Amino acid sequence: xxxxxxxxxxxxxxxxxxxxxxxxxxxxxxxxxxxxxxxxxxxxxxxxxxxxxxxxxxxxxxxxxxxxxxxxxxxxxxxxxxxxxxxxxxxxxxxxxxxxxxxxxxxxxxxxxxxxxxxxxxxxxxxxxxxxxxxxxxxxxxxxxxxxxxxxxxxxxxxxxxxxxxxxxxxxxxxxxxxxxxxxxxxxxxxxxxxxxxxxxxxxxxxxxxxxxxxxxxxxxxxxxxxxxxxxxxxxxxxxxxxxxxxxxxxxxxxxxxxxxxxxxxxxxxxxxxxxxxxxxxxxxxxxxxxxxxxxxxxxxxxxxxxxxxxxxxxxxxxxxxxxxxxxxxxxxxxxxxxxxxxxxxxxxxxxxxxxxxxxxxxxxxxxxxxxxxxxxxxxxxxxxxxxxxxxxxxxxxxxxxxxxxxxxxxxxxxxxxxxxxxxxxxxxxxxxxxxxxxxxxxxxxxxxxxxxxxxxxxxxxxxxxxxxxxxxxxxxxxxxxxxxx
Length: 486
What we know:
This protein has 16 helices and 18 strands. The model has no long low-confidence stretch (mean pLDDT about 95). The strands form 4 sheets. Strands 5, 6, 7, 8, 9 and 10 form a 6-stranded antiparallel sheet that branches. β8 and β9 (about 175) form a beta hairpin. It has 4 domains: about 5-90, 2-Layer Sandwich (Uridine Diphospho-n-acetylenolpyruvylglucosamine Reductase, domain 2), CATH 3.30.43.10; about 95-230, Uridine Diphospho-n-acetylenolpyruvylglucosamine Reductase, domain 3; about 235-345, Alpha-Beta Plaits; about 360-450, Alpha-Beta Plaits. The protein is globular. By secondary structure, the protein is an alpha+beta fold. It has helices spanning about 5-10, 20-25, 45-60, 115-120, 140-145, 185-190, 205-210, 245-255, 270-275, 280-290, 305-325, 335-345, 375-385, 420-440, 450-455, 460-475, and strands at about 15, 40, 65, 85-90, 95-100, 105, 125, 160-170, 175, 220-230, 235-240, 265-270, 295-300, 330, 335, 360-370, 395-400, 405-415.
């Protein structure tokens, strides 16, 4: 039996693709990694079919590469490392359940931000979402990847907003985590008041943490419950410009300590310009006109006394900003805060905001205390400057997380689409910058293929422990081999 017939016996021939054109769509992405062609692509529509695929893969020693988001993809984590079959989960796109009372939504992996945001809005809810995601980005994948949400005050744990999941492990076993573990079906749990919101367990193991950041190497997640927040009845966005990071960082800490503001993050002038404009010449002009740094603070009022709630938060913001010699504004360099707030509640318009300046972008991101971010940025700029990378093409995004206890630091290197020697040169620059940051103490909590080896070679005990865990949940080593330290 050939590969097509073998896979057809699991999911049906109409959802198996072995033609070159379809496979080529999964062989490369926007990362600088070399292309790698899969042997086939399958499109399951249910957890049962995913189970069948995993069992088939274990029996035939065939790698499986899960994919949930639509193209273009960017980080190299869905490229086949040694052939295998891509499992495209975009067809599993049901919004299974929305619970406004408990502020949670249960979704399949194919549900995108563009799909879910308006449905939640109709229910009076919103996501604590990352900064301007692509419309085709999977909500479930974003939560599994621990992409930083814009509202640190609503993130109580590093795993938020992910709650419970259904996962097919590499053994072919189906497993429910957290509160969803039972007893009873989902429908039975809903009848009894269950919400699949409590993520811990079952028993004394928090299984969802094993799956987060695993890039599909531990299991294939077929649904997840995602924590939501109430949709504001009134909101305002203030932009606080500054030439130096120090006062803005102190203001950010003060706001988070006093629980003022929902959305709260910092960007440099280039990132802000890319967010609000699509034309490269206009982006460059805005970046040149803007202050070096901008702190964005969103204030929200809800069902009860929204004006009063926003009023006292506005007073607090202005008073704390005054103490640092800063002045919040409702607009900046032609950017209206009301318009920008509306945009931040949705997905990035096309073209995607990070590629608007030059057509392409490569990111380096890591975790560090917010007050340590300036030192890491100075180090990165020195390395990039020594490699003759133009710092005018460097975007910076600082996102406080988990009530401000840590910060996501993201460097975006804007560049023209490259190939050949220029592509290799840029990859070397990225590698040198990541290595310098890592050696200085930056924590790469999401080691994608571009820097995974340099992360794990420094953590021998952790790497060995992770490989033992892999042996438990994927003993045949079929799930996305070649990623992380596997």
